[in-house]
Amino acid sequence: MTLMSKLANPPTFKPFRLALIQLGSIGANKSDNLKHAREMILKAASGKPDLIVLPECFNSPYGHVHFPVYAEKIGFKPGEAYDIGKSESESVKMLSSAAKECRTWLIGGSIPERDASSDDVYNTCTVYNPQGELVASHRKVHLFDIDIPGKIKFKESETLTGGTTTNFFDTDFARIGLGICYDIRFPELAMISARQGCQVLVYPGAFNMTTGPLHWELLQRGRAVDNQVFFSMCSPARDTTAGYHAWGHSMVVDPMGKVLCEAEEGEQILYTDVDPKVFDEARAGIPVTMQRRFDVYPDVSVGL
Ligand SMILES: O=C(O)CCC(=O)C(=O)O
């Protein structure tokens, strides 16, 4: 399917229940991490969500030294059938079987991925439908390279390569745009997804103790209001014994910028009922989607 034909028919936005898993106990043992993530997906499914979300980097500790060690070959190509049975990725197999067992959509957080042909390593999100099919993926486009003296230095580009595509997927209840964590700081990505018809944007993330309190909520509310969409980030739980201390505070924001739900720091499952009425009312009451001045500045979503 070409992008143009995919864009032509966004699904009608319908009410749905979203579950965020703020996953804890992410340690050095990948099998244990996968086992725990699977248990938490099954637990989340008991609240009857339509879509379950895991956090960024849920199968390994978070840090550039870990990415190549934990990386798995996925080999997904948009628009081409993917045979889960032949997948080399144990994480993909677990996520697929969990989605199928729970009969829900699943955004599988992110995992380090090794590209089979280039050997480059990416920070990759994979998405599954209720039949367990891998239907979409997103390779983190903007790598988290920051240096705030005395606070935090992080350089994903030491071992990761940035993705080169924007991505969304269609369910029977919404078109959902994808990003990963630092991607939120680049408003163009969210803007492009919204202009492509996404009503909901979901970014697995893992902010830290410096930027979390400053920007985690601000950025999500900003992207939600700019684009008049629902916006959600799902974080790992905070583990102060780990090398990286995640901020936590997984949340869902509505198109008016209201925080609908927010986790604390620990392991937690959050449920939110997403109501399209808020989306329609925001767009009708403050009609910025009709008032853009592409005669004054360009539309970043054109020509992708
Ligand atoms: O942008 C930030 O402050 C944090 C980003 C981050 O933790 C990430 O991209 O994994």
TrEMBL record:
GO terms for molecular function: omega-amidase activity. GO terms for biological process: asparagine metabolic process; glutamine metabolic process; oxaloacetate metabolic process. One of its GO terms (cellular component) is mitochondrion. The keyword ATP-binding does not apply. Coiled coil: none annotated. The keyword Hydrolase applies. Pfam families: CN_hydrolase. Keywords: Hydrolase. InterPro entries: C-N_Hydrolase (IPR003010), C-N_Hydrolase_sf (IPR036526), Nit1/2_C-N_Hydrolase (IPR045254), UPF0012_CS (IPR001110). Residues 16-276 form the CN hydrolase domain. Signal peptide: none annotated. Belongs to the carbon-nitrogen hydrolase superfamily. NIT1/NIT2 family. This is Carbon-nitrogen hydrolase. It comes from Lentinula raphanica.
